[in-house]
Amino acid sequence: MGKAYILAVDQSTQGTKALLLDEQGRFLLRRDVPHRQLIHEQGWVGHDAVEIAQNLPRVCRMVIQDAGISAGDIVGVAVTNQRESVCVWDAHTGLPVCESVVWQCNRAAELCERLDSPAVRQAVQEKTGLQFSPFFSAPKVSWILKHVPGADERAKRGELRLGTMDTWTIWQMTGGRVHKTDASNASRTQLFNIHTQQWDGELCRLFGIPASMLPQVCDSDALFGETDLWGLLPRAVPIHAALGDSHGVMFSHFCTELGDVMCGFGTGSCVLLNTGSAPVASHSGMNTTVAWRMGGSVVYALEGVANYSGAVVTWLKDNAGLVAGPAETSDLARSANPQDRTYMVPAFTGIGAPYWRSDASAAFLGMTRLTGRAELVRAALESVAYQIADLVLCARQDSGADVRELRVAGGPTHNDYMMQFESDILGCPVVVARHEELSGIGSAYIAGLALGLYDYETLRSRHEASAFTPQMSEQRRRECLAGWKHAVETALRY
Q1: CA-to-CA distance for 48 and 54, rounded, in angstroms?
Q2: Superfamily name with CATH number, domain 5-244
Q3: What's the confidence (pLDDT) of residue 284?
């Protein structure tokens, strides 16, 4: 076999990444271009979609040049993305009507409060598998249409389009010719019926979103058009995968069997438990979602999202000034007073599953006169692990699955203290993938499989990982979890 490469674009919360994989599915290189985080005084979070569009050719050029490969050897492109983040743009000019609204942003909370009723909550959850919440895409789009001057009228005239960041990326890559998304991303919008696998007219009317704005929903391994990457390639090649970022982690960590569970650590963290071909309704505040849809067959998952995980460390550095960077947090946490019982509840923009309180505020609780820098850093790291434990335990309860291990990936998995504490508090092994780029690798795998370039079992046999095993006593584990529950309950009463 000659040289052949898959280029994957990962539209993450912090920036645009481009990855290269070779003809055997081996990861070669990643390049990143950050984009600005637009933080408003109300706590709203946005991105400049034009900036993101401009970064796309830049990052693709960087990864091709730095890898020293021939651009003509790229045979396919894949896309993955921060999922609920959404953009609205003019169908003719391609210009956004405003900033994209990021998944963390709760600016649509008041709108959801006005729409809220038991009947609405039931309809949304039964059709979409999702809790009724401003963190999903539909309320964000509704907010845009109601607050951007003229947007609602333009939408009704069929002049506007919407999309999660996979759709925005594909639109850019194809010069505005293709308006598509995949089922995994569609299932995160609160407009997609996961049972019929179609956009739902009743939900579109509930949120006031014209159907003309919506992209075509495709299988995750479908053909999403062709691109020459703004002239970087000598010929157009197929875009043969689109997938939500957490779903990409799930696929590349080979959580493809019933009961497999993974956590993708990033700015926020997502827990997904594979429930196979049948959607499982949650009774504990989790969401039911499409893991992926390939060849017309749907794989479902139970999911919960922690809004702040890697972002907690960013807060420690940029806002609190307690650390210079992530590298020093593990040693600081280990040096903390073992008798200190400080907890952090990182609800900076509300708290998601399983509590679903968009009005919640962040808090430190249980501090004493002796609580200092090391104790606060430790509490911050442990708050991430507690949030993930909440989600895993809820998914296990809903599914009845025996969770034998948690497979994890992402930048925060390099934090040994956090990973060991995660294993301790769950009482099971935590398996860490060698590569932190699994979201992009997952979409690249799907593109390579669709093109006949890769073999699934060969990819699986090359997968590399290491494991942390529990060291905490059962009594101490129960005490820690009880303290966390008390801390969250106290913070929610504020």
Answers
A1: 10
A2: ATPase, nucleotide binding domain (3.30.420.40)
A3: 87
